[in-house]
Amino acid sequence: MSLTIYQMAYSPFCIPITEALRACGVPFETKEIPNWDRSELLRLTNGEYYQVPVLVHDSRIVTESNAGSEDIAHYVDQHFAKGRLFPERLDGLQQIVIEFLSDDVEFQTFRLLDPHTLDKITDPVARGLFLRHKERKFGRGCVEQWRRDAAAIRAEADRLLGRFETTLRHSPFLFGDAPVYSDFLLYGVLGNLTYGGHNRLNAEQGALQKWSERLHRFTFA
């Protein structure tokens, strides 16, 4: 079997896929895609897709069908996790958590990392393409605005993450004794936030820290 994940290592939507595969004990390879150069993805998908992650399982290429889908996660669940990422008993309820993480929480956390990502890009063309990608969606000067507003953005991120901190003080994982996809998605959001050590969990987020370590050690039986 051949399994390859095309990713950006800091992506909050790539980290959940690779971490779930690791928990399943599935061997896989990763290929890193620069944010400013998606040409390899375009060649792979015959010009039809340029987002990450992309999963290639033997000869099958799996992408998302729309901006809000979890097609790749469901594929991993069906082929490798034996339905444990999306158990039927959590249908509906888990989707509420997934959408909250993907829309509300991630909107705060990615803006705390992006200025640091930009700082590491030394090539002027790559830097310009990174900025163009961001500014087309969020407006001219958005990255520098996020840099200036970092304290306020972090405060809002911490407020939203507080709901998970409270939950995880009383439960090993978000919905009980074993992780589901929303655990891996939260792990991805935090992995993006803390990537490169520029942002860290604070002293009031001890349950999140212990949960993160517990999830990284977890393997499905």
From TrEMBL:
Q: Keyword set for this entry?
A: Transferase
The protein's matches in InterPro entries, at most eight in alphabetical order, are given as: Glutathione-S-Trfase_C_sf (IPR036282), Glutathione_S-Trfase_N (IPR004045), Thioredoxin-like_sf (IPR036249)
The record's section on PROSITE patterns has: GLUTAREDOXIN_2, GST_NTER
User: What is the superkingdom listed in this entry's lineage?
Assistant: Bacteria
Domain GST N-terminal, first and last residues per copy = 1-80
Q: Which GO-annotated molecular functions does the record name?
A: transferase activity
Q: What is the lineage of its organism?
A: Bacteria, Pseudomonadati, Verrucomicrobiota, Spartobacteria, Chthoniobacterales
Report what the protein is called: Glutathione S-transferase domain protein
Give one Pfam hit by family name.
GST_N_3
State the organism named in the record: Chthoniobacter flavus Ellin428
